[in-house]
From TrEMBL, chains A, B:
Pathway noted in the entry: Amino-acid biosynthesis; L-histidine biosynthesis; L-histidine from 5-phospho-alpha-D-ribose 1-diphosphate: step 2/9; Amino-acid biosynthesis; L-histidine biosynthesis; L-histidine from 5-phospho-alpha-D-ribose 1-diphosphate: step 3/9
PANTHER family membership: HISTIDINE BIOSYNTHESIS BIFUNCTIONAL PROTEIN, HISTIDINE BIOSYNTHESIS BIFUNCTIONAL PROTEIN HIS7
Assigned EC number: 3.5.4.19
Cited Pfam families: PRA-CH
Protein known as: Phosphoribosyl-AMP cyclohydrolase
Family indicated by similarity: Belongs to the PRA-CH family. In the N-terminal section; belongs to the PRA-CH family.
UniProt cofactor note: Binds 1 zinc ion per subunit.
Ranges for domain Phosphoribosyl-AMP cyclohydrolase: 30-103
Function: Catalyzes the hydrolysis of the adenine ring of phosphoribosyl-AMP.
Residues given in the record as Zn(2+) binding sites: 78, 94, 101
Enzyme class (EC, first level): hydrolase
Length: 119, 119
């Protein structure tokens, strides 16, 4: 029996969060959202495909920027309401041109930028 | 000026997703939700504190199970609508007693369990 994306748990907008993690280094690159069709497309094509909430359209990661995410492994959590995509990220994952979207460290006192845009 | 959790972007329920990642190994352990008060408590106490959507109460990770998460670093993403907590996880992070909640690998064909409960 093939895997059915309908067996995942989606929110009121029909979306499930997906964390992207770099294969090998374990670096957490970004988090974005998928709907059931985006999950199916990701599995079918091997190219990580999100659902853009702002554009209300499929978002094949890197399609315009070239900063693609090749799927290595897709994992679902115990509650089936969150995904982890292990990927091979080409270049920066973040739209700010940084490798990861999580480049700001927060303490009770202040925020510190941990990484610079890639050149 | 101290960091103000109100500067983060919360969803319609006042929540922001927080990914927990093990320091050193980079293993993604779980994803859960925080509200602004949970963010503040996490930073103040150094113990990762979520907001339980099912119980509608603060959830100090490991308070009952002993499987605590000591905060090493809290990071906010470029859109300020997702958090990454780098932690020192004591024992399993998952309620199924597995180290990580992401223990199931999905392909177009099937699901495969990648890890067993800890003993």
């Amino acid at each position: 029996m093939s895997f059915d994306p309908a067996t995942l748990v989606y929110d009121a907008n029909g979306l499930i969060p997906c964390i992207a993690q770099q294969e090998g280094t374990g670096e957490v690159l970004m988090m974005a959202w998928m709907n059931a069709d985006a999950v199916a497309r990701t599995l079918e094509t091997g190219r990580v495909t999100y659902w853009s909430r702002s554009r209300q359209a499929f978002w094949v990661k890197g399609e315009t920027s070239g900063h693609t995410q090749a799927l290595v492994d897709l994992r679902v959590d115990c509650d089936r309401d969150c995904l982890l995509a292990v990927v091979r990220q080409e270049g920066p994952a973040c739209h700010t041109n940084r490798r990861s979207c999580f480049y700001t460290s927060v303490t009770g006192e202040t925020e510190t930028e941990l990484m610079s845009p890639m050149v």
